[in-house]
Amino acid sequence: MLSSLFISNLALIKNCEIDFKNGFNVILGQSGAGKSILIDALSFVLGAKADKTLIRTNENLMRVDAIFSDVDDSIVKILSDLEIDYDGELIISRTLNADGKSTIRVNGYVVVLKTLKEITENLMDFCGQHDNVGLINVNNHLSLLDKFIGKDANELLNKIEEKYDELNEINKEIKNLGGDDSERARLKEILQFQLNEIEDANLTDGEEEELNERFSFISSAENIVERIEEALNKLDQNSESVINGLYDAKNSLNQLLEFQEIADCQERLTNAYYEIKDITDTLENILKSTDFDPKELERIDARLDSIKNLKRKYGKTIKDILEFASDAKQRLDNLENSEFTLVNLNSKKEKCYNELKLLCQNLSDLRKKFAITLEEKIKNELSDLQMKGTNFQVHFEKGEITKKGFDNVKFVFSANVGQEMKDLSKTASGGELSRLLLAFKSIMLDKENISTVVFDEIDSGISGQTAGKVANKLNKISDYIQVICITHTPVVASKGDSYILVTKETKDKETISSAKTIVGDEVIKQIAGLIDGNENVSETAIVHAKKLLSEK
Question: Hey, what domains does the chain have and what are their CATH numbers?
């Protein structure tokens, strides 16, 4: 249950703290006062898309905190799994700055949006005029029926999904083996061609790098020869060469080896002499092997082009190409020996398909059984809501097998006796859809773990006795779960256990909405205002408001 809500710098609200009670919480206020801002705030703190346009003008940061108590055990388990402390209160805090950066904390722990949605998925439910769109969308009808059925439908749906995935895997294996004989022969021919092309190339891992290095080396042969000859000339090919100098220098110290420091220097000169001698030998060998050969360049270039062509077809590297060849060989071997495997796979496929079909049939039977119950419950609820004579049916059509079974389901409706049954979108008025939505919410109470439901002007377009019936229905729902209701209907407002008034005022060129709890005479005055419609309510309206409140 929602205990309190703190809002800072969201739309017209600057700073506002609201306490909520168990039972029926009624939110009152003139049109445009900012009641819908409370819905925006709740949606935001529960994980709705962050919208920077909601940040109050001239402010850089908006914040919403929501405190919940007595949350469902499933939410407590999620918190435990996430190692988030829980001591009887769930505190969610979310901020959004002008740069679009959002920070979310749950009981002080920073979490990401995905985690927040996981925690809040079954925390609150929103029910407003816009939800009618979801009700008339035929794509939602099957899931609504399954939700009404509950556990038994979920168990069958899980089994169907597992069996459906199993069938897909079998079909993939059959496809990998070529399918029918002609397709298998075609695939074998393709694989053999690919394998021959790769094997004929006789590739080796690392070959391309060696070829590129050799190509670069030969292309630079003239420059290499010139630079090596210059280096050798300075090292060993003149009387003042480095080697001759080192040789003479080390020999000059031969007579002074009894002095340790000089002996060390002589040893280092000797080592340097042999090191330089080894370098010159290496350079001379490179010089002898360096030769500009146009034909070798052409051969290397052609080989690199061949490798490039194979990479385009079979992989980004030679290693990838060789792995492709290995896979192709394995697939070819499988195809050569596929007859026996295909017999087994087709047998498994038939068995799996029959099992899937049976599960779908069981689910369809279950759906049709519960559809009758759903029809009766909806009609009873609608009868309570001044819609006697209304007919509501769940229409079934058999379609292709999917993870949801093979049923196509849609709800059809007739508001009057003798009227043709039609799709909800084609026959139900706005007021009728609102009552249908309320009827669904009523019968789903024991199917959900929701502890709070928010009704946003669900009574719009309804008046008279019908409004009274809607008020009683909302009041009855509040006996089981917390209800938060935005309303402009006096009889609905009169059923409240707690009242919150949203007001708006302009001061110092600034417009601010605020909300506060009201009691006693202020409640009477606000309900009387709904009756009278005037700023200064009449005594008659006040008497009527008192009468409505006394009948609660």
Answer: 1-123+450-518 (3.40.50.300), 188-335 (no CATH), 521-552 (no CATH)
